[in-house]
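Human: I wish I could look at a protein chain and see how it folds. This is the protein in question:
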Amino acid sequence: VQLQASGGGLVQAGDSLRLSCAESGGTFSSYGMAWFRQAPGKEREFVAGISRSGSDTDYADSVKGRFTISRDNAKNTVYLQMNSLKPEDTAVYYCAAGDGTAYREMYRYGYWGQGTQVTVSS
């Protein structure tokens, strides 16, 4: 299974970005998917998760109401729409594929993408 994340970049506070993560080599619809992020000097943290069908989602409190996770099983892709970006959202964002339970637990995810950098300037 390979996960290819894309869509990161340098934006100003208040701007929007959409991250994409394309899966190949597996059965995308059988995986719960999530986005995590890691800022310099900090531990990797959960951002958002979505169930296999897309009917259930979960968000970290810090992004709730600003970020939206979605998936297109026909395209084997998961997305993270990020609105009203803040400087504290600056991090490398990783997509992950797992067993579809306990979205926030990293150990549930067996496959990880390479990460895409998001930088938000003030």
